[in-house]
Amino acid sequence: MKAHLTRRYMFSASHRLHSDKLSAEENRATYGKCNNPYGHGHNYTVEITVSGPVDEQTGMVCNLVDLDGFVRSEILERYDHQNLNLLREFAKEVPTTENLCIAIYEIVTRGFRHAHLEKVRIEETMMNSFEYRGEE
Prior knowledge:
Layout: E1 2-15, H1 24-31, E2 40-53, H2 64-79, E3 82-83, H3 97-111, E4 116-123, E5 129-132
Parallel strand pairs: 1-3
Antiparallel strand pairs: 1-2, 2-4, 4-5
Helix pairs in contact: 2-3
């Protein structure tokens, strides 16, 4: 029997949306106020959805302590109160929330072994959310 578990986490970070491949005018036209040279911040909500068989002994897809510990050490400590533009994963990528979603998905895929990762969803604002399910 396969079940899904979704867990929510929160962190705050800043970024500036700017591409070195675009001119100053193109950056302003593409990213608008998000191209502010001083950056801006968000209070992100990240949802991690994992799946797997329900363990007969525990009745769970995975132990929440394991998932929480992994997310805390590998994601929250890495991104909370950071300027995303200064992190190595965004040295050549624009730190859009789409790219942040993909980066978090890859971290969980590489390191969390207690259940299958289904998707990562990030709420950037009340109006914007992004989701990544891996390559299809």
